């Protein structure tokens, strides 16, 4: 009986590390050459460790080998990779992260790459395609049947976030005029059914989808029943150009395991499974988290300093520009600050809380947009609500910061300016927090990308402007 | 043939809104009483709209009704809710968001709530339990069989993020010594199999799991084969106390559809399905996004201003405290700023870029911790790498901001102080970005919660301190 997989996986990682360690110890001894007479013995021990390691790797699921490869430093990673059986290369390449995949592919020659790709289904080759050298892809193409070439070309042609890029081609189809008995006989001719086959696709002679025949119904129904009578004639279907996000929502909402993908004429062109959808959800979430922090792509723990630094530059550059702008806004009021230096100590409070409050609003708007909950009918209510919250928060927190300023500098007017600036900047934050993501959405851009930078730029510059402006008017 | 679900759903929403609108128009007319003679006619039209609406709702999937309820303002929401058939109340309550569920439950009397709960499976009742009044739960308990009570008690007892809280109890079990023919006959006695039954659980007389019999193999194998010969004797199993996160990773990694949940003696206690896992992933991601912005719980678009404001206070209060600290750090250097007012305009740049850079590091560390990629062996490399990146970025961006300061104020020393402060604060940011999430993780807390506030507090205060301190030493 297998244990919970997570603990076994940690166990495997430990064993692999240990074997690698012992292996490297022996290697070090051999290279030191300080016991030349024992060469033969050591070389045997050495080989034995590698054999043990190889044996261990052979027993692991490809996803687990991928995990181990990701966790090892580059030199050990390549050593383990060389021990993996050639016929498993393809499935493991599919599982590793982008950064590690690049490194492994760079380490393989074209012959090995072609062999690895040929082990895979066409939809899987399509996933690897962007990372494979051009001549390797040409060789792979040549090795495929005409139908497979067509599938591969189709799969490559869709953008990453379209259903077409996630679908596979392992459909089992039946006709609606046969009985379940015939279906059962037909299925028995397979060695095994494709993974995630929870239903057969019912198609006509032209390949148009007429319904879905859940395997469960095949099993519980009388074998004499015709397919048409037990099939679901209104299944959820997808089109290859549909957004993967929408498909993920549908899989979640309707608890799907697999669904047909059809073209405009309802002809079956592929299959979408929950496994592909789960992969997509997890990768999309991961990418979103990275993007929120301004990382353009994932970084392998062992990526080089140079490569990692460049990955982070775009964001830092953008933020530097907005910081320069904010700095020049403050510069407008140098005369005021020279007279009341307390302003310099207090101004970051107004800007900072404005940014925090605005980011709360933006996060809720982005979420509601993603869930499709913002309509023309309720947008007005939303604005009113957020402005109401800002006014309430402005009065509450504005009073707190006003008191803070008053107690520090014993100046009532300074306290009042703080309070006023806080109220105004929170209103600015609410408006910017609503309209920045809405405008990006209307322009067809992903509001999760960049809304936060634009928002902070607004609340910083406006916060400094409002506070120092009010101070110039009322305190000088 | 159903279209892609997303467009049909938008269509449904539009129809419901239209019917509601027409209904309200008639209501307004009736209430105005300006055409008393037409009362009867209007009341008929009125009824007709409601009947049409009810008919439309009856055809929708519970998840779609839930979506419509979430999108409608509170008054229309309750009107639609009253039109939903009582026997669908339970399944729809399961699908709506927490905020909307609370509102709907508050609107129902105990009798209706007990009736709704009784429509559900025990694991589903457990999901609703936290929101149901005590006396309703007592009534529900009384209506259950002894076995169901036991299941409900078990399901309620696990924390939200444990496998036990996600599992259901719809297992179909077989013995290993029978043939597939017997299995097929046994299955045919069911009216239908539970959703997501991709495999039968092979158990012994004591209920201990011996293996998994995929339905696919039942279909393709010779009916005379004994179960023991085709079952998978080493299935992935979970324990009720396992973390849901680990289970989600396993489902993703091994492409599972359903898996047995067993106790310490390997006895079957429940079943985990990919549908529950997908729900969990999407809810956990959503909660993480909200928490990143300092929102304690989700907010319904139509939540009251007062309730929403309180939801956001904790975060604003924490940030206010850190802003006060940063403000006092600047206060230490008021004398310096009085002499060189340019420092006030430049200091937010040092603090801001430090915060951005540190957040990039923290995000990568949190991600690597979640993927289990940080080990004692590679932690050292990680620190070296991040410090290297910071040094490189410090020199690059430090030179840029140094030049900016020099060009603005024609002061070489001021430029050099900017550059030096940038290098130092980016090093601080890298160290804080690594150690804050690591320490939180070691203390058993979720590093995604609060790391970012602590980090920004550090980079702000240290940024001001380093920059103004260097200026005091070298420029006065």
Q: Which descriptor suits the 3D outline of chain A? A: globular
CATH topology name of the largest domain in chain A, in short, is Tetracycline Repressor, domain 2
Write down the oligomeric state: homodimer
Query: In CATH's first tier, which class of the largest domain in chain A applies?
Result: Mainly Alpha
List keywords for this structure.
476 residues; homodimer; 5 strands; CBS-domain; Tetracycline Repressor, domain 2; mainly alpha; three-stranded mixed sheet; 22 helices; MgtE N-terminal fold; disordered N terminus; two-stranded antiparallel ribbon; 3 domains
Explain how this protein is built.
The structure is a homodimer of 476-residue chains. By secondary structure, chain A is mostly helical. The first copy, chain A, folds into three domains: 5-158, MgtE N-terminal fold; 173-292, CBS-domain (Roll); 305-475, SLC41 divalent cation transporters, integral membrane domain (Tetracycline Repressor, domain 2), CATH 1.10.357.20. Chain A has helices at 5-32, 39-59, 62-71, 74-83, 89-95, 98-107, 110-118, 122-128, 134-143, 146-157, 163-166, 180-188, 215-220, 227-230, 244-254, 274-292, 305-331, 334-339, 342-370, 376-409, 412-442, 451-475, and strands at 173-174, 199-203, 209-214, 258-262, 268-273. In chain A, the strands form two sheets. A three-stranded mixed beta sheet of chain A has the order 1-2-3. A two-stranded antiparallel sheet of chain A has the order 4-5. The longest helix of chain A is centred in the C-terminal third of the chain and has 34 residues, at 376-409. At the A-B interface, α1, α3, α12, α13 and α15 of A face α1, α3, α12, α13 and α15 of B.
